[in-house]
Amino acid sequence: MKKIGVLTSGGDCAGLNAVIRAVTLRATQTYGWEVYGIHESTHGLVRRPVDAIKLDLSTCTETLLRQGGTVLGTTNKAYSSPEGTQKDITKEIIEGYHLLQLDALIGIGGDGSQAILRKIAQQGNLNLVTIPKTIDDDLSHTEHSIGFMTAVHTATEALDRLQPTAASHNRVMILEVMGRDAGHIALSAGIAGGADVILIPEIPYKMEAVAKKILSLQEEGRNFALVVVSEAVEMESGQKAHITDHAGKRRYGGISYYLADRITELTGAETRSTVLGHVQRGGEPIFQDRVLASVFGVHAVDLIAQGKFDRMVAWKNRTVVDVPIQEAIEGYQAVDAKGILVKTARGLRISFGDEKL
Ligand code: F6P
Fold first, then answer.
1. Is-catalytic flag, 136?
2. Do 117 and 235 reside in the same domain of the chain?
3. Atom 12 of ligand 1 has which residue's CA nearest to it?
């Protein structure tokens, strides 16, 4: 009988619990293995006794599939000690894996977490399989990662709510969405939510072109406009808008406030900004994420059964495949500025702020 571990690492998103459920069901029910859910990513492996919980049919409750967040907890600091110090914890992580007597580990994470987990696995000769998750959807070699589609759904719903209030007050509404350096959420939500302007980091914009689009809508008799902007879009100076927290750490945020002022200056329109933030990460996964999570969880366990390690499960051409982890983390999936979604948006008269003046 095999013993496998599963952990979630990096920022949470909708669908993580559905993956944990799928891994547990497949491993315990098909193969008769034991599954350990490790708490707070690598931190659970560093703590003594090792901080993990046995997962079985009884933990796969009727709510797990639907539940947001991750029941195992997570951290953005998989390489720091649980106390937050910078000391190298690789040795303790490897030791924790052996203390649990694991035969393999499934790591659910984005590119950063997967890179850390792979480095540790290589050093300790651990059997690792990874599952891609990130609302940013910027991992290469997979058409989608867990959490993205729910984030887009939430952003689309926000546009559905902003449109009537925009129309009631003759306003330009700007919705700022996450995505770190990729514009996937803004692009898909903008199309689905009927945006007039979509600004993403992959397509440089001119403020005058944005203003021209809004003025042309006014000329047509439209009394409102919807703008979606990705958090990493630059201001005209070339700088990105940041928030600095109490520890001096900078995070993206606030580009929508900058744009609101500039739009009002150039068009005279009354403008309001909404920063959607972590609402995009929480909440119940929509059906697409539940299906993807289930497919990925089952396939990851099957890879272990076949003795295939150092692989990331991926979605390609309507089926599940697996690729070397290294290849997946080396690549990056930005929005294709010439791709079908950008073309479609242009076909719907959506401006990217890059049109000729
Ligand atoms: O990578 C996922 C993500 O949600 C980004 O879209 C966003 O910029 C970042 O994480 C926010 O991180 P944190 O939860 O640390 O504020």
1. yes
2. no
3. 11
